[in-house]
Fold these 2 entries.
Entry 1:
Amino acid sequence: MRDRDRVIHSGAFRRMKHKTQVFVYHEGDYYRTRLTHSLEVAQIARSIARVLRLDDDLAEALALAHDLGHTPFGHAGEDALSAAMERFGGFDHNAHTLRLVTKLEQRYAEFDGLNLTWETLEGIVKHNGPLTGAASKNKPIPQAITEFNATFDLRLDTFASAEAQVAALADDIAYNNHDIDDGLRAALFTIEEVVSLPLVGGIFSEVMNRYPGLDRSRVIHESVRRLISTMIGDAIDETQRRINKLNVQSAEDVRVCGQPIVAFGDAMSANDKALKAFLFKNMYRHAKVSDMMTKAKGVVADLFALLLKQPDGMPAQWNVLCDGAGTLRTARVVSDYIAGMTDRFAFEEHRRLVAIEGATR
């Protein structure tokens, strides 16, 4: 409970209200942001954890913290910052979340970070699975995680707790469903197109048949509500089935059983995959979204190049951490600074710094 409360009171949590989920902030006040997305994930995670008699406070804390490390402009911003940082060790939003909660948040008199429990830190780092060992995806481990793990072992070769797995699946449930809602509201696709999807189409059709003449907005909300409930129910049933099959009796059993215990069943997994493919094609790669994300990548790339060359363009408390233009240390400071920006502030800083750059030429 303390971990959850410290996450909520952090500066990084507040900044998520102006960080992109899919739509940049000025495209409309109704669309989800990183903050509202995280709140929806927390509600779903807590519901699942409560039914499964897990630690719902831990699940909620992890859900609220899982996106703290995201850059402005969503995944487009992360791609741009990762490319800029490639020769300096790269950038990863999960690793940056760890840096935020263990170092960069400086609010307390006796320690840096938020002084979170081992279970919360483990869940932040491993909610998508082990980082080393046979069950890992054999991807390079971000430097921030490697350095922290050397002094505070998070057991990178095991699965995370059931609560962390719940938070990860709740993330999928939340963004799939609110992206249907936001995509329809933004007219990126139509209800008629959605009806062609397995599961989703059946639910939309059922609502429209049961409530003929219901206005479009209520059709969408009622259908999304039912879809969320259906996905939650499937996740609970499949997780209970795996707990029984694997004879999971303890938190340690969850970590060493060799596979996730929190998951969809096979049929729901197939439905989830079809929905993700639809949203990727019709929403995330839609011209309206792609054009803005291309601009956003340019903003992040410009900011990094300008500040790496002229770190005194950052506020004094950031500039003092640097050791000169173009160095590894300065690059990491610039990366931390940019990653913490909101969409709005990134646009404003870009305009300011580009104007200064132009005036000095």
Note: DSSP finds 18 helices and no strands in the chain.
Entry 2:
Amino acid sequence: MNIKRIYKRDEFGKTISVRPDKESLENFVKKHKVLPTIKRATYFGEKYAGSIGEQYGFINALYQQPQIVEYMLKNNPTDRRMQINLWQRAHFAKAVLPSCVFDILFTVIDGTLHATVIQRSADVPAGLPFNIAQYALLVNMFAKVAGLKVGTLTWTIMNAHIYVDQEEPIRQQIRRYEYMKEYEKLILTSTDETVERKYNNVKDKFELLNKKVFAGLSYLYSSSEQFKNKIGEYTKNADVLTTEIFDKIPMSKRYTILDIALKEYNLSLMENSKDYEEAFERKISFEHMLTRGNPKIELEDHKSIFDYSTEYAPKGDAYYEQNQTGNKELLLKDYHPTPFIAVPVAQ
């Protein structure tokens, strides 16, 4: 079901469509008894968006596909029809969004569970990492309850894309990857003393720049009420920019503040924000290569995947300090991520 759109020509003679008003949309939704969708939310606001998760859950509940797969893994693991398919055309009219990851097939070879995932469309920076973790966990859960070893996860994407407003975060990730390759080669081919000396040089460069940046920003903060008000959201409107406050500001926000200071307030005797950013990226990339392990998942013993709890430990819980998943039945060991990169979600 489509909302009727108005078509007209722009100043260059190109035909464009114009969204209808909210009253027209509300009448359409009421008349046709359709659910809100992400596309409608794009034009008319969040209240017109439903939940993708509920739609996926509806399909699984209707056809009981996960239950069937679990039963076959336990009772007939050589079956060639073990599949969870979310591409149910009969329900598209009610779908918030046609399933992006829509098919997963399972096969057991010599007591090892392998899976193949098919994805029609992938938001590579924001959606894909979650999708991979999601299905990797599902395979681990199925293997655990069926007494099987975990094998391979094969992934096929038809349309992998990056949205325009995601370009810079992706470039940041690629820079980190290049630094990591550089430091991996150094670690594998050099003595411990050489590696330690190189790391100390990288760390010292960042710390020196960090001190210069803080000194310049704290001076401007104390001498310009306008600047203080402009970045107040980052400093919680404190009277003085202290090291304690500065250290709690995420690096991505520090770059923003530094750019404002350099471009709008002509703050001199300071490093360019790109130099500062590179020094930090090199430091954390080096530290990641020195501390990374081989991540592994440990799951509680259960008879069914549906027995796993979704309860999370509160942040003050001692368990949470040792296991950042927060879920008491899912332990992720030897996983050392680099600091978070903010990636916009685009639709």
Note: The radius of gyration is 26 Å.
